Amino acid sequence: xxxxxxxxxxxxxxxxxxxxxxxxxxxxxxxxxxxxxxxxxxxxxxxxxxxxxxxxxxxxxxxxxxxxxxxxxxxxxxxxxxxxxxxxxxxxxxxxxxxxxxxxxxxxxxxxxxxxxxxxxxxxxxxxxxxxxxxxxxxxxxxxxxxxxxxxxxxxxxxxxxxxxxxxxxxxxxxxxxxxxxxxxxxxxxxxxxxxxxxxxxxxxxxxxxxxxxxxxxxxxxxxxxxxxxxxxxxxxxxxxxxxxxxxxxxxxxxxxxxxxxxxxxxxxxxxxxxxxxxxxxxxxxxxxxxxxxxxxxxxxxxxxxxxxxxxxxxxxxxxxxxxxxxxxxxxxxxxxxxxxxxxxxxxxxxxxxxxxxxxxxxxxxxxxxxxxxxxxxxxxxxxxxxxxxxxxxxxxxxxxxxxxxxxxxxxxxxxxxxxxxxxxxxxx
Length: 429
Hints:
Blueprint: H1 2-18, H2 21-58, E1 63-68, E2 77-80, E3 83-87, H3 92-101, E4 105-120, E5 127-134, H4 138-141, E6 146-149, H5 154-159, E7 163-167, H6 168-175, E8 184-187, E9 197-205, E10 220-224, H7 225-231, E11 235-240, E12 243-248, E13 253-258, H8 264-278, E14 284-287, H9 289-332, H10 334-342, H11 347-384, H12 392-418, H13 422-427
Parallel strand pairs: 3-12, 5-10, 7-9
Antiparallel strand pairs: 1-13, 1-14, 2-3, 4-5, 4-8, 4-13, 6-9, 7-10, 8-9, 11-12
Helix pairs in contact: 1-11, 2-9, 2-11, 2-12, 9-11, 9-12, 11-12
C-alpha cells in the first residue's frame, strides 16, 4: 500500500513539475552546472595530478638523483694553457665515497654528458644530441620501455665497446625511418670532415620528456661510460657569440639506489652532509623523488579539496534556486493545499508531496549534470590533449550532494505549505 502511494505521489509530483516545464528546467540548471563542474574540475585535476605522480614514480621511489650545477661565482676557475677553465660539479671520488661508505646504498650509476652533432654514418645531415655515458645499471634505475634490441651490458663496459642505445625520438631524428638496429651513427663530425666517432645502434628505448628532475631527455644516445671516458675529455670547449669558455666537470650526475625506501631520506641527508664537507662551493643539487612524490600527493589532495569547494558553491546556488521556486509554488498552490487539507490530508503528506517534487528536480538535475560532467573532460582531452580521469567517487558524491541539496532546501517550503491554515488557504485567490 505504501509503495503504491509513493508511486502515485511521484507521478503527481512529476505532473505538477511538467505543468511549468520552462520554470522547472531553469530551476535545475543550477544543479546541472554544479554537478557538471564538480565532475569536470575533479577529472581535470585528477588527470593532471596523476600524470605528475606517474612522472615522479618513473624516477624510482628508492632512488636519489645528484646533479652538478654551475656555481654562481667562478671560484673554481684554474689556468690551463693561458685560458681559464671553470671546474665544478661532482667528481669520481664523490661516487666512490657514496658507494663504498654508505651501507644503505645498494648501487650507484655515474653519468657523464656531452652534446655532439649526430648523423647517420658520415657526411650526412646532422642534428644535435646528448651523448650520455652510463653503466649497465642505468636501465634498471631509470625505467624506460625497451622498443627494440637490447640495452647496455656489463660486457660493453669491460670491452669499451663502440655501441649506443638511442631514445625513440633520437632514433627517428637521426635514422629518419631507416632500419635501426646495427646502423652506424656518427657523433662529433662536421659536414666537411670525417672525424666523428662511430657507434653501432644496439637498442631503442622509449623517449621521455626532460624536466627539472628527470635524468634523461627525448633525444639521448647512451654509450658505455668506459667508452665515454676514453673518447671524450672532462674539459668541454664552447664558443658562442665571439666568446670562448672552458668547463671541466668529471661527473654530471650520480644516480643512487637505496636498499630500503624507509632509508631514502636519511641517506639523502647523509649525502648532502658528505658533499658539503668535500665541496668548497655549492655546485651540486640532491633530488629525492620520494619526497617529490609525497609533496605531489599532498598537493593533489589540497587541489581536489579546493576544486570541490569551488564547484560546491554552484550546488549551493542551485539549492537556493530550488527553494526559491518551491516557495513560489507554495504561494501558487495555496488553494490546492487548502482543499487537500480540508478532505483529510495530513501535514506529513503535504510535506512528503513537496519533498518528492524537490527530490525529482534535484535528481533530474544531478543526472543531467553527470552527463555534462562526463562530456567536458572528454572535450578537454580531445581539444587540448590533456589527460583527464573521472573518479567514480566524484559521480556518486556529486549526485548524492545534488539530491541532498534538493531535500535540504525543499524542507522549508514543504513545512510552510503544511502549516497553512486550511480555512485561510481555501479563501486564497
